[in-house]
């Protein structure tokens, strides 16, 4: 089902009330920012109805029923429809699934060594790591990023994938696919390098450092430039921050869940807060112009 731009409005126009009305009516939609405007996208077959509704209720009206056939209004966007509006988010998750399959979720070391932060050789029962400088000199710059695609176990992959889908879609709908990919790569490099500095030559991987970056970005961006796309339920934010503190305490490792990449989590969160600060201030300044 194709989507069309039904409204193009200045950034200083408050769309939050109208968006809440669409959400209440369960109308598929998304809001993006393009060339200094906020653009409302809806399925083509209901675009005229949505435009007419906005003409009558630009600020939204929680008691107003929409003049769209009930079957269409109540229809939630299907998974395929969601994928069309979250292509970059889906791409990262698909790559993670592929890497999980070819590395047997961390069991196939010979394949995994091409994606780890440090290359390594297995000699007998020992792992010998290759210095990072040697790998970079050989042109293997992908190693700064690809550990985010490595996961150790199905639960590790499922949990990280679920949170990336939730947070990635928010950023992609608000700032676009290119910005999401850029932020993902930035958080991956920052969290991977921090973990390497903290733990030294070792095997680590997963999207969790990136996830905390996305969390920090949404959190601070929303504080400075409120937008429905970045409005995280308070319980989610508190839960992830509490989980970070629990991991830092060492309790998770003590009870047998393995080593936790705490340096990746903390660095990802800090860099994410920084990008959220810069993005939020920039967006706030544009709204004030």
Task: List key phrases describing it.
three-stranded antiparallel β-sheet, 13 helices, Alpha-Beta Plaits, 10% strand, membrane, two-stranded antiparallel ribbon, 289 residues, Rhomboid-like fold, mainly alpha
Q: Which fold name fills CATH's third level, the topology of the largest domain?
A: Rhomboid-like fold
Helical content class = 55-70%
In which order are the strands of the major sheet placed?
1-3-2
Helix-strand makeup class: mainly alpha
Sequence stretches where pLDDT stays below 50 over 5 or more residues: 64-75
Our estimate of the beta-strand percent is 5-15%
EC number: 3.4.21.105
GO biological process, one term: proteolysis
Membrane topology: Multi-pass membrane protein
Subcellular location: Membrane
Write a structural description.
The protein is mostly helical and 289 residues long. The protein folds into 2 domains: 3-56, Alpha-Beta Plaits, CATH 3.30.70.2080; 79-287, Rhomboid-like (Rhomboid-like fold). 57% of the residues lie in helices and 10% in strands. It is built from 13 helices and 5 strands. The protein has helices at 16-24, 47-56, 70-73, 79-84, 87-102, 109-112, 132-137, 154-175, 177-199, 208-224, 234-249, 251-254, 262-288, and strands at residues 3-10, 30-34, 37-43, 120-123, 126-129. The strands form 2 sheets. The chain has a 3-stranded antiparallel sheet with strand order 1-3-2. It has a two-stranded antiparallel ribbon with strand order 4-5. A hairpin with a 2-residue loop joins strand 4 and strand 5 (126-129). Helix 9 (177-199) crosses helix 10. The longest helix is centred in the last third of the chain and has 27 residues, at 262-288. The two termini are 36 Å apart. Residues 64-75 have low confidence and may be disordered.
């Amino acid at each position: 089902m194709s989507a069309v731009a039904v409204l193009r409005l200045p950034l200083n126009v408050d769309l939050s009330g109208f968006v809440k009305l669409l959400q209440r009516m369960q109308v598929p939609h998304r809001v993006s920012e393009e060339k200094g405007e906020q653009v409302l996208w809806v399925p083509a077959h209901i675009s005229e109805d949505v435009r007419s509704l906005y003409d009558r209720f630009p600020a939204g009206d929680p008691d107003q029923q929409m003049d769209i056939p009930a079957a269409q209004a109540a229809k939630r966007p299907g998974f395929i429809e969601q994928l069309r509006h979250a292509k970059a988010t889906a791409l990262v998750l698909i790559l993670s699934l592929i890497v999980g399959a070819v590395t047997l979720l961390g069991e196939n070391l010979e394949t995994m060594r091409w994606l780890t932060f440090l290359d390594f050789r297995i000699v007998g029962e020992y792992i010998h790591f290759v210095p990072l400088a040697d790998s970079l000199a050989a042109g293997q710059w992908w190693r700064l990023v690809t550990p985010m695609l490595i996961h150790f176990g199905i639960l590790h992959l499922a949990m990280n994938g679920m949170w990336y889908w939730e947070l990635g879609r928010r950023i992609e709908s608000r700032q676009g696919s290119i910005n999401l990919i850029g932020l993902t790569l930035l958080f991956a490099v920052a969290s991977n390098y921090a973990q390497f500095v903290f733990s030294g030559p070792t095997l680590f991987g997963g999207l969790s450092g990136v996830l905390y970056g996305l969390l920090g970005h949404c959190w601070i961006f929303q504080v400075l430039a409120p937008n429905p796309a970045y409005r995280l339920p308070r319980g989610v934010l508190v839960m992830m921050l509490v989980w970070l503190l629990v991991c830092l305490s060492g309790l998770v490792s003590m009870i047998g869940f393995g080593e936790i990449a705490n340096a990746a989590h903390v660095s990802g969160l800090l860099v994410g807060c920084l990008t959220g600060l810069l993005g939020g201030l920039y967006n706030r300044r544009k709204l004030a112009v």
